[in-house]
Design brief:
mainly beta, single chain, 404 residues, Porin, globular
C-alpha cells in the first residue's frame, strides 16, 4: 500500500486548470514523419499503459503488483494508397510484462485491471475491412477481437476494472477470442441509417478455448476450432442527438464440447446479454461534458459456466468540472451470481461453497496533458471468489497512460 501512496503523491497535480499542450503525443509529429505518413494513408499510434495495485486488506496474498503493456498500431487507408474505395487494413501488436496478479494475488474472480496475461510480445490483430452501400454495410476479415465486437461496455473507457472497461466476465464463457489474443474470424454489420437499428453477425475460431497456448506469438494463422458465433441486434441514437443512447441484445454460441460440473460434457455452450445506456444530463450547451449511465445483464447455462448471471451498472461523468473538460470520473458496480452447479462441485471436492461476488470501483481519470492520463482507482470486492467466509478485499490502483 505504501508504494501506491508514494506514486499517487508524486503524480498528484492541481485540478484548477486543464492542460493546454496541443499535441496528443509526447513526441509530437515526429519531425513531420507522422503527418507525412497520414497524408499517404498510414496512421501510426503507440502508447504505454502501466498499472500498479496493492490491497488495504483481505487479499489472498499481500504485496504490490504491477503490469504494463506497450501497444503499436497502424491503419492503412487503401483508398488513398491503392484506390480501393472505403477499405483499410488495421494491425497492432503488444509487448507486456509484469506480475499476472489480478486473480492469483487478490484471490477474486473479477479482474481489477483490464490488462492481464502472460509476459510476451505478440501480434494482437490484423484484419481487412471495408464499408459498402454508403456505409450501411461493413465487414472485417482477419484476426479480430470477438468479444470486443459482441458485448463490450460502451462507457468503459472511464474504468480500470476489466469487467467495466472491456466486457463482463460472463462474456468470455463461450470461447470467442479476445484482445490481445485475437484469432481468425469475420464480422458483418448492417446499419441502414445514421443511428437507429443495426444488425451484426460474426464467426470465429475459438482455438481450442485457449488462443494464447496455441498461438503464443499471434503469428499462427491456423484454424483449430471449434467454431464460435456472435450475433447482436441493437439501436443507437443518430449523430447530433441531444442525449444519445443505445440498447443491444446479443448472444454467443460455441459448437465445441464443454465440461459440465456435475454431468457428462455438453456439446455446446452459449450466453445471452442485454446492454443499454444513455446520457442522463448534459453539463454544457454543446454536450461535450455529460453524465452517462448504463446497465448490462448476462445469462449462461450454469451446468457448464462459472457464472449463471451477471449484472454490471455504470455511472460516469465526462468533463465533471468546467475547468477539467477532458477528465472522467466513474462509479461501477458488478454482481456476479455464481453457478449452483459450480458451487456444488466445489463442495464435493472439499472446497468452499460459492455464492455471489460483488465488486465496486470508484475512479478518477485525469488528463494531465493531451498525451498523459493518470488514474487512481479504489475497488472493493465482497465475497471474494464467491467465498462468504473470506473478508472483503479492498484494492487501490493507479494507472498511467502515455501516448507517443
Amino acid at each position: 500500500m505504501k508504494t501506491y501512496l508514494q506514486i499517487l503523491a508524486l503524480s498528484a497535480l492541481p485540478l484548477s486548470a486543464q492542460p493546454t499542450t496541443e499535441s496528443p503525443y509526447l513526441f509530437g509529429d515526429w519531425g513531420g514523419l507522422r503527418s507525412g505518413l497520414e497524408n499517404q494513408g498510414i496512421t501510426v499510434r503507440t502508447h504505454t499503459i502501466f498499472d500498479v495495485y496493492d490491497d488495504f486488506s483481505g487479499a489472498a496474498e499481500d504485496g504490490t503488483g504491477y503490469f504494463w503493456r506497450q501497444r503499436l498500431s497502424a491503419d492503412f487507408d487503401l483508398e488513398k494508397m491503392l484506390g480501393w474505395e472505403n477499405s483499410y487494413i488495421s494491425i497492432s501488436g503488444v509487448h507486456q510484462d509484469g506480475k499476472n496478479y489480478n486473480r492469483t494475488v487478490f484471490g477474486v474472480f473479477t479482474n481489477p485491471s483490464s490488462m492481464e496475461g502472460p509476459q510476451d510480445t505478440r501480434l494482437a490483430n490484423i484484419y481487412f475491412g471495408q464499408d459498402l452501400l454508403d456505409g450501411a454495410l461493413s465487414y472485417k476479415v482477419g484476426k479480430i477481437d470477438g468479444v470486443g465486437e459482441f458485448g463490450v461496455q460502451d462507457y468503459g473507457s472511464t474504468f480500470m476494472n476489466d469487467e467495466l472497461s472491456y466486457v463482463p466476465n460472463i462474456i468470455f464463457g463461450a470461447g470467442i477470442p479476445w484482445d490481445p489474443a485475437q484469432k481468425l474470424g469475420a464480422v458483418v454489420t448492417y446499419r441502414p441509417t445514421n443511428g437507429g437499428l443495426y444488425l451484426k453477425g460474426g464467426v470465429y475460431d475459438s482455438s481450442d478455448y485457449d488462443p494464447v497456448q496455441y498461438d503464443s506469438t499471434g503469428l499462427n494463422f491456423d484454424w483449430h476450432g471449434p467454431v464460435a458465433y456472435g450475433a447482436e441486434i441493437g439501436y443507437t441514437s443518430a449523430e447530433g442527438t441531444e442525449k444519445p443512447g443505445f440498447i443491444k441484445l446479443g448472444a454467443h454460441y460455441n459448437t465445441g464440447s464443454f465440461g459440465r460440473y456435475l454431468k457428462d460434457d455438453a456439446d455446446n455452450n452459449y450466453l445471452v446479454y442485454l446492454n443499454a445506456g444513455r446520457t442522463l444530463y448534459n453539463l454544457n450547451s454543446d454536450g461535450s461534458r455529460h453524465v452517462d449511465a448504463s446497465l448490462s445483464i448476462g445469462h449462461a447455462p450454469e451446468d457448464r459456466n462459472l457464472y449463471k448471471n451477471e449484472i454490471t451498472a455504470i455511472l460516469r461523468a465526462v468533463g465533471p468540472f468546467n475547468s477539467r473538460p477532458n477528465d472522467e470520473v466513474g462509479l461501477g458496480l458488478i454482481a456476479a451470481l455464481i453457478s449452483d452447479d459450480y458451487s456444488k462441485a466445489s463442495e464435493n471436492s472439499g472446497g468452499p461453497k460459492s455464492s455471489e461476488e460483488y465488486t465496486a470501483e470508484l475512479t478518477y481519470k485525469a488528463a494531465v496533458t493531451p498525451w498523459l492520463t493518470l488514474q487512481p482507482s479504489f475497488q472493493v470486492v465482497m465475497n471474494p471468489a464467491g467465498n462468504t467466509d473470506r473478508s472483503t478485499v479492498w484494492i487501490a490502483g493507479l494507472r498511467a497512460k502515455i501516448s507517443y
